[in-house]
Specification:
It is built from five helices and no strands. By secondary structure, it is mainly α.
Length: 129
């Protein structure tokens, strides 16, 4: 069956896959993928396997339809670093809040304990300690 060898190659390269990787994903031998891209001929089963691996309809390999664009994550490296920085900032803010809140609570508890100790020294009979 005749297929569009250039379409297979361009879809594979757009994903950053080697011929060996496409072969592994499609369950074919690397030699079969090499032959597909070189000769533009494939058995029905090979065409179906390559189409499934590339996530397209088998008819798109025969050139009947235009191949859909390769899906991308939509998040670039700069956006990833901004997101990472934002998450780290949030985590640090939470840690700092916990530290300040812990300090304030500890300080207040110590002052309360000091007042109770002073009250117990002044009137030991009324102290519940």
């Amino acid at each position: 069956m005749k297929i569009d060898a250039n379409r297979i190659r361009s879809l594979r390269e757009a994903r950053g896959w080697s011929q060996e990787h496409l072969a592994a994903v499609a369950g074919l031998s690397p030699r079969t993928v090499q032959r597909l891209e070189a000769e533009g001929r494939a058995a029905h089963e090979s065409r179906m396997a390559v189409a499934a691996a590339l996530g397209i309809e088998p008819t798109q390999l025969a050139g009947f339809q235009a191949a859909p664009p390769v899906p991308t994550s939509g998040i670039g490296a700069a956006d990833r670093s901004k997101i990472t920085l934002w998450i780290v900032s949030i985590v640090l803010a939470v840690i700092m809040f916990q530290g300040v809140a812990g300090y304030v609570l500890g300080k207040n508890a110590a002052q309360r304990d000091n007042r109770i100790d002073e009250a117990c020294k002044a009137a030991p009979a009324s102290c519940d300690r």
